[in-house]
Each structure stands twice: as structure tokens, then as C-alpha cells.
Give the backbone structure.
Amino acid sequence: MDLDEVADRLYALPPSEFTAARTAEARAAKDAGEAGLSRDIAKLRRPTVSAWAVNRLSREHPDELAELLEVGERLRAAWAEQDADELAALTQRRAEVTGKVGRLARQAAGLSPAAGTEVDQTLDAALVDADAAAEVRRGRLAKPLHYSGFAPAPIPRERPAARKRKTPEDEAAEARQREEAEARKAEERAEDEAAHREWRQALDAAEKEHDERAEKVKRLEGKLAKARKRLEDSRQRLEVTRREERHARQRLER
């Protein structure tokens, strides 16, 4: 068993099952004598719903995801070569494939609007950034990805539009996003606290075991010292007895 194997199993699970499964995997590694692996497993973060939805794509829709990532590779290459015609053609292809893969993620996971937006942001990041693409391909995301650099696609400049007034629906959606973000932070905090409690208990148990064995060794060392003293006394008596026996035998022989 290694960390990659365990991580693949864990990140295939829904977020609601992740924490219990991670605890079980960490305990199994510890029971097998792999304390380092157990600690590494305990550090794996519970995925957000949007990250889990993208992770599912790599397992359940690998062909569609591979198509999206291939478009991303071609986009980055066209941008590096400043190939305007290729960029223009790929821009439309990008919208089509991103929409298709995004719909697959939503249908499979039943995402909220906020989580769906995070899926789209993650797919966009995978399109324009090679490192993000590699993370998406592995299928072990713990949180959504964002790309803040310049996207390799022609973006026409438009006159700034008048600022749109927020509707009640917009405000509700923003409130939901804030609530979900706060909930994720609370969940991560709870996981960290649970992990700390588990390792604190393990530390207490290890310290108790160490102290008990140290005391036992101390007692045994005391007994060993006494036994060595008795052995030395016995050795001296043996030497005296041998000497006296030899003298007695010599007198007898005379």
C-alpha cells in the first residue's frame, strides 16, 4: 500500500464519505507499522463538492475530459506561436467542449449554481494552465482551481457597460456562495481539529507506553545489577574453594 493508491481510492468517494474513509485508511496503515504513511494519509484534505465533481470526470468520463485537455494543449501552443487563425478556431471549440464537460459534471453530481461555477472555473484553469491540467487529469483535487493569468484566447475589447444593478436573485446567489465558502472553512477546521485530537491521543498513548517500558527497564536493570553482584560473589567463593581444595589435595598427596 502506498499514498498514491490510497489517495486514488479516497478521492473517488463523495465528500460525505471521505473523512471516515481517510480515518480508516490512516488507522490501517498505522496498524501495519507504516506510521509515516499513516501521517501522510491523515493530511489529505476533504474535497469540496465542486472538486469532487471534477475528480469524477477523470474516472467516469475520461474521453470527454481528455478532449478538453487536448483543446487546452492546442490553445497554449497556438498562443505561444501567436497563430491568430488557430486561436480563433479553437476559441469556438473551447466553448463547445467546456460546455459539454461542464454539463456532464453537473448532471453526475447534482451541483448547486455556486458549485457549478467553481467547476467551470476549474475547467477553464485546466485549459490555459498546464499544471492545472495535470492536477485535473490525476483526479485528486481537494478544492476548485482558479487561473488569474492571461488566458490564451483572443478577447475582443468592449466599451465598459453601465454597471448593472444587482437583483434579489444575484444577492441571494452571492449569499449562498458566502455561506458555502464559510461552511467549507468550518468543515476543514473541524477536520483539522479531529485530526489533531486523534494524534494527541496517539501521542498520549505513546508517551504512556514509553514511560511504562522505561520504568520496567529501570527495574530490570536494578535486578540485573543485583544478579551481577551475586554472580561476582559466587565467582569469588568458587575461586577460594578451588584454591583450598587444591591445597588440601596437595597435602594429601605428600
